[in-house]
Amino acid sequence: MRKNKNKRQPTKRKTASQTQKSKRPRNDSPKMTEKDSSELTPFEIFFQKIEKFSKLHMKDRDRVQEILQSMQKAGSKTLQVISDFDMTLTRFEYNGKRCPTCHNILERSDVISSDCKKKLQGLLDKYYPIEIDTTLSVEEKLPLMVEWWTKAHELLVNQKIKKDGLAKAVRDSDAKLRDGYKDFFDHLHEHSIPLLIFSAGIGDILEEVIRQSDIFHPNVKGVLKAFKGELIHIYNKREGALLNTGHFQELRTQTNVLLLGDSLGDLNMADGVQDMENILKIGFLNDKVEERKQSYLDSYDIVLIKDESLDVPNAVIRFLTE
């Protein structure tokens, strides 16, 4: 696996937040009023910092402020992070080329047969257009997505791939975690903040990507393994969350959640959290931007459009652990 360099964007202080409320997307928000830097609160400094990111959009900035302030007041010991993997913690593209998902890593490797590759490609050609079809409801897509993932899963299991084959497939792949991944994993580990990864991808591949990046820390919990356990696909992560109630029971004091996803199906990953007080949802909108932008703004608190970094989640986590 080719690793990314951990990059940070330079930050500059802006002016303080205006008290007038707005529910318009960030780019249409009113300009902030001037205030001397010595009068800024730590929260105002932080919030101005994240608002500088050009790829960050919010429908209701006041709601985001309220959630963040409440989470900070509760303290970092009450925080857990729940995240999708493919196209959320990993990059969507690099140098104009699509990066592989966990399934793609195997499909493009030499550890599976050419016949299996052909069949997997046929499934992709048939079902992927359905997955991204904005005219179909989740209810209409669901049985077809289950059909797709079940068939693909069975094809891969029947290949009887050995562990060293998985490691080689990841090593030879173009899989890349998002810029800032090392800060993300290391900072969560440093502050003992649990990270639960829900994924429709192959858990064995997912773990190998993390291990080869030297960031598989003890706080990374509950990785759902498609080779070893329940089949999790893009639209049944709520059921996956409820099946994983043992994890949530252990973390019953972590009642504040930072959720990261790249699809509307990811929004239900925290449904098993008990006595949840606050949840901040950050969504990565990777493609089909104009078609899907409004639905993402309606569903996620913060939307990152074509952003291949973890700079915003990292800024949020650092603020919550200060």
Task: Describe what you observe in this structure.
It is a single chain. The chain is α/β, with parallel strands linked by helices and 322 residues long. The protein is built from 12 helices and 9 strands. The protein has helices spanning 42-51, 61-74, 102-107, 114-131, 138-157, 163-171, 181-190, 203-212, 237-243, 245-250, 289-299, 311-321; strands spanning 56-57, 79-83, 93-94, 97-98, 195-197, 220-221, 256-261, 278-285, 302-305. It has a 7-stranded mixed sheet with strand order 1-9-8-7-2-5-6, sandwiched between helices. α1 (42-51) runs antiparallel to α12, α4 packs antiparallel against α5 (138-157) and α6 (163-171) packs across α8 (203-212). It is globular, with a radius of gyration of 20 Å. The model is unreliable at 5-25, 28-32, 223-231 and 238-243 (pLDDT under 50). It catalyses: CMP + H2O = cytidine + phosphate; a ribonucleoside 5'-phosphate + H2O = a ribonucleoside + phosphate; N(7)-methyl-GMP + H2O = N(7)-methylguanosine + phosphate.
**Beta-strand percentage range:** 5-15%
What is the terminal-to-terminal distance? 33 Å
Cα radius of gyration in angstroms = 20 Å
Unreliable sequence segments: 5-25, 28-32, 223-231, 238-243
Widest sheet: strand order?
1-9-8-7-2-5-6
The biggest sheet amounts to: 7 strands, mixed
Give the CA-based shape: globular
Percent of residues in helices: 40-55%
Order of secondary-structure elements: HEHEEEHHHHHEHEHHEEHEH
Number of helices: 12
Strand tally is: 9
Mean pLDDT: 83
What class would the helix/strand composition place it in? Answer: alpha/beta
